[in-house]
User: Fold these one by one.
Assistant:
Number 1:
Amino acid sequence: MAGKTKTCKRCGADKPLAEFTKVSRNADGLNIWCRPCVKIRSAELKAAKEFHETVKTAKVQKIPPAKKTLTREQKDAANARAKAKRDEAREMRAAAMEASK
Ligand SMILES: [Zn+2]
């Protein structure tokens, strides 16, 4: 058996202990993730942070919201939904009247 290994909690690979960075607060003194995973994770965090900053900047610039214009199809669909709701309510009232007779 060649040296001790540890399973990375992120990629699940069995890797030699040298592949894990030292973390004194952990029980075995090693990171739960292997070096490549830690690297990927920090890159992800950096990307996420940059994305948030972009969003923040966009908000500060107060980009006016796009004018809310419904297409003909959207209007028709909304009208159809409203009509269906009205019809349903009418039927329920009629049924209730019928039941109370
Ligand atoms: Zn890993």
Number 2:
Amino acid sequence: MMSIDAFSPMLTQVFAHPLLGSYGLPNSDSTFGPKIQFLWNFWFWVSVFFTVLITGLAVFFSIKYRFRKGVREVADPSADHNTPLEITWSIIPLIIMMVMFALGFKYYMDMEQPPSGCYNIGVLAWKWHWQFTYPDGATTSTLYMPVDTPVKFSMTSKDVLHGFWIPDLSIQRDVIPGRTMTVWVKAIHTGHFKLQCAEYCGDGHSEMLANVEVLPIPEFKKKLAQAADIWVHNGKILPLHVVGKKIAELEGCLGCHSVNGARGTGPTWKNLAGSHVKLASGHTATADYAYLRQAILYPGRKMVAGFSNVMPNYYTDFGGAAHKKHRKLDALIWYINTLSKHASKASRPPVPDHPGKSKASKTTSNSSGKKSAKMGTSAAMANKKLPAAALPMVAVGKKLYASMGCIACHTVNGQAGVGPTWKNLAGYPVKLTNGKTVAADYKFLRFMILYPGKKVVAGFQPIMPSYSSALAGTKNVKKLDSLIWYINSLSDKASASTEPPTK
Ligand code: HEC
Ligand code: HEC
Ligand SMILES: [Cu+2]
């Protein structure tokens, strides 16, 4: 039997002819494009042909055999059966339908099933922003993709239904809170495209856009290396306000706050720091450092007059319950200060202890990276304390992190996602919703992965899916342990009690 694979390129060629047109379908830059275009055209021309044939004949016969006085006023008895005719007009459409079905089904399955060896990217959507997480630990607000490489997206939403749609790459999929949705694509050209939300998700919906950059592989790796550490660039420590601007982009603040004076869903940041803010309570507050901190950590506590209470709670993103690291918050507030002519000592953060300092030299040696030959292996993990024998397990764990979709909800660089970051998780205390604080040792990590929802980390929703079929039982111990090895490799407090047993 002739395989569809041999058959379809030929048809695709015929229907891709410019004379047959593309009828408004975008000129696709992925491997799906020609297939969708072909199916569309095939359907279209078959429909045109039969519409013309059937309505044409109907019109023709109703004219030819119309009622005329004196001409055959009484109808002839009609032929009641003609087997060859009946068979012909059943078989021909049946064959056409079967071709449509076979091709449609094949292409659908191609689009549903990611090939093995995909590059994995996590996608997190919320009102009104997209955030992308890469296996190397970088998170970005522009989607970077390697060209000619199948890429699988594991996606979830922090709040409501959104739609992941890149028209130029012919992919679209709903992004649903509490579930991980996947879609894959292989871009065949480099270029800049747009990602847009395809689901009406509130008043900022039309602004829920992201840039998509499909890059040659070396350039792609360079971009990720740059994005992996927000505090330094090419080994140089960045000024805090520059980091603050990056964070504002990454966290989606700019979806609601303008920096040019325009009113958005939230008040503009232009000339905010140091100014007098009218509150809904009727009071006036001065936007000093303490005020700005409060406004970001506890939105809604003091409402600005004329705005509604829709700012997401960023409390966990800036250090969480422990309140340890507010350096990101300070960076943001530095940035907000650079936008204001009223900025003063009172509105600026206290002189910063720059988090880039300790890392700058390390990152330089990494980013010159001769070792990072394979894409995705240059991770900022390499914890020297792990036993050498565990390193292959770490590598497997890292792959599973991406391929099993943990990447949709957990970052490995300290950035908050829908779930807690895995950076500095092993060995650190974790606060639970039941009020207890426990050390994240091996047993705890195992428990949290195998029985999601039984114990819940404070500040998070219990939405982690169950992986028991993929990770429980003796035959899966290796997989589970590899994941836990990987989590260990990301912590500076890894120890014998947090590592999987070796034997
Ligand atoms: C979904 C829209 C939205 C997003 C996203 C958002 N905000 Fe807001 N923000 C608001 C609204 C609305 C207000 C005013 C109402 C209030 O005070 O809560 C506000 C108020 C503020 C204020 C006080 C402004 C003033 O004029 O006093 C600051 C500072 C602020 N946001 C910072 C941030 C930062 C930093 C981020 C990102 C980490 C962020 N916002 C993300 C909607 C948003
Ligand atoms: C749909 C989002 C989602 C996915 C996918 C997901 N998780 Fe989670 N995970 C969460 C959330 C939310 C929490 C915190 C709430 C809780 O404890 O249930 C969490 C908690 C955890 C914790 C405990 C973290 C801590 O701070 O104590 C571990 C460990 C963990 N997940 C591992 C995994 C692994 C391994 C995978 C992939 C096999 C995975 N998760 C996939 C959402 C997710
Ligand atoms: Cu949306």
